[in-house]
Amino acid sequence: MTTYIVRRLIYGLIVFIVVTILVFLAMRALPGDPILIYVIEQDVQHVTPEMMDELEAKYGLDKPVPVQYLNWIANIFRGDFGRSIRFNEPVSKLIGERLPVSLYLAIVSFILASIFGVAFGVIAGLRRNKIIDTVVTSMANFGISLPHFWLAILLIFIFGVWLHWLPTSGYISPFEDFGKWVRFMVMPVFVVATWATAFFARQARSTILEVIHQDYIRTAWAKGLSERVVVLRHALKNAFIPVITVMGMSFVMMISGQVVIENVFAIPGLGRLIVAAIFAQDYAIVQGCVLVIAIMVVMANLIVDISYGWFDPRIRYN
Amino acid sequence: MTTNEFIGEGFSETLHRVSGLRRFFRVFLKRKIVLFSFIVILLLVITAIFAPLLAPYDPYKQVLSDRLLGPSWQHLLGTDYLGRDLLSRMIYGSRTALLVGIIATGIAATFGSILGTLAGYFGGWVHSVIMRFVDSLMSIPMIIVALLLGVMLGGGLVNIMIAVGFGMSSSYARVICALVMSIKENDYIMAARASGASDLRIMLRHCLPNSFPPFIVLITINMGGAIMIEAALSYLGLGIEPPGAAWGAMVQEGYGYLITHPMLALVPGVAIAIVVYALNMIGDGLRDALDPRLRGLT
Questions:
Q1: Which neighbouring-strand residues pair with A83?
Q2: How confident is the model over B30-45, as pLDDT tens digits?
Q3: Mean pLDDT, residues A84-98 taken together
């Protein structure tokens, strides 16, 4: 198991390094000059070429690209993610403020989606072609087809504009006012979780359908075990691996959806920060955010890989 | 080869093909929802092709005196904030959706299957390099990859299609790589190699055609995905140049009038959802008909 985990860790590290290089190069390939954008945005009067050079030197943009890359990586290990040109603040501070906001949204949605998705999928699979199966399957098929931003707008219209039950957008820290935080989070969580729930339910259903026909399930029934034991002990445990694969895969897709959702609901999270930064060509923020997201995704994949080895000992030895 | 043998071979092949095709259609159209979805997509294609004939008004013409009209017999879905007929814009928007679906997916499939075939066929360090690159691309959320590429290339529909296509190519690379790796082990590949076929020929003539069934399923489902990402991008403000009509951008434009004119934002969203749903269902149907092994994996 240890060699298995070590090998997975090395894979993760390689992926991580490649991500940093890709993002770094992508940012340098953007057209336009971030210093120029800064000068225009800040409305600095009487810009001289010397001032431009000075600003370039301040943000380290005067050095060759490979040197910039190595400087960036070296600084990250010292906890310094660089300085945002647009917000004129350290990127680590900006990310530190916004990461928790995104994490709350992601974690709450992921937990809810896992519970409801797997439960609905398993029930539908066990009651194949019954009413409950038809309802779950068609809801799940709709759930994966709805554009996030549109579902968000629909909810805003119904619960915010029409019924006045929930605030249409905004955010407050849960430590400041928990009740208000819940009210702000209901709709975003619902939107992010809807897609994931639908996705998990589809996978859980089809896996259960496959597992249920296996010989060992028939043996379990023949032994006279109760439905509860057959389903929980025999079917579910074996159905878990494909479901976990999908959960791991969906993590990055959930973040993708969250980027859009944070923009619709004006939630000050990482997704909103990164979209603003891409449009402003704020190198340091985009690089820092993608880095943080990539670490989370690589870690999620690592957890999935390790849990494979745990659920199915055969995998460890391959 | 004698003439008899030749005829015999062709004959049995035809027989096999016909029954295969019949079986395919029987399974494919067994579920009513798949048939319904097929009709939906057919209607989308017809609408997109004949948009100029079907649209009651010029989708770009602004009639400022007719701003934000409600549904009426003149304007079945009303007009938008610039007095443009919503129905006409919806009809022209179908062109954007279809174009994005086809071209972005085409780019993704081409680029992804080249990478995947090379990685799967050659194995070793080629496999390691390509697949680590693909893994890295997949660990950045697709919307961010597409946004970065879109800004890099400078907006506009063509660039967005390239951005979305490139962003989606990694999943093809992964699937094709796994398929080619298993196909490579077959005896017919060894036979081809023994008879002196080049690597390129084996890849193009043997590996690619044999990975076709799962490939086509992936393409169908990804078309829906591409339409969704383009919609999300144009919602975020990166997409077709105004005054061009795209459903995602229309939702965004309509959002500002949600309180007074909810139709403007809600109608285009319904269209996106229906088209994506139909493509997903066709994908499911194709999967059941072509490759039962894939059930549940896509």
A1: A90
A2: 778 888 899 999 999 9
A3: 86
CB contact under 8 A, B280 and A31: no
Residue B22 has pLDDT above 80, yes or no: no
Give A 257-286 residues with CB within 8 A of chain B: 257, 259-260, 263, 274-275, 278-279, 281, 286
Mean pLDDT of chain A: 84
Residue range B253-259: mean pLDDT, rounded: 83
Least confident stretch, A132-136, A273-277, B185-189? B185-189
Angstrom distances, CA of residue B34 to CA of A265, B38, B46:
35, 6, 18
Distance CA A47, CA A39 (A): 8
- For residue A146, list chain B residues with Cβ-Cβ distance below 8 A: 273, 276
Dist CA B274 CA B228 (whole Å) = 11
Per CB-CB distance under 8 Å, the chain A contacts of B252 are 149
SS3 B63: coil
How is chain A split into domains, by residue range?
Answer: 103-272
Buried b (16+ CB within 10 A) or exposed e, B108-118: bbebbbbbbbb
Residue with tokens 């057959």: A230
Asked if B266's CB is within 8 angstroms of A256's CB, the reply is: no
Say which residue the tokens 């749903």 belong to: B277
Six-digit token string for A174? 């849960």
What pLDDT is stored for residue B293 in this prediction? 53
Comparing CB atoms, the residue among B133, B258, B295 nearest residue A153 is: B258
User: Is ipTM strictly over 0.90?
Assistant: no
Residue B265 has its nearest CB partner, among A23, A153, A205, at A153
Q: Does A185 touch chain B (CB under 8 A)?
A: no
pLDDT at B12: 44
**Which chain B residues are within 8 Å of A142, Cβ to Cβ?**
273, 277
Q: Is the pLDDT of residue B278 over 90?
A: yes
Residue B33, pLDDT score: 85
Least confident range of A282-291, B61-70, B183-192: B61-70
One of 1.10.1160.10, 1.10.472.10, 1.10.3720.10, 3.30.470.10 is the CATH number of A103-272, namely 1.10.3720.10
**Which chain B residues are within 8 Å of A141, Cβ to Cβ?**
277, 280-281, 284
Residues from chain B contacting residue A281 (CB–CB below 8 Å): 151
Token pair of B80, please? 């938008």
H-state helical runs in A85-177? 91-126, 131-143, 148-155
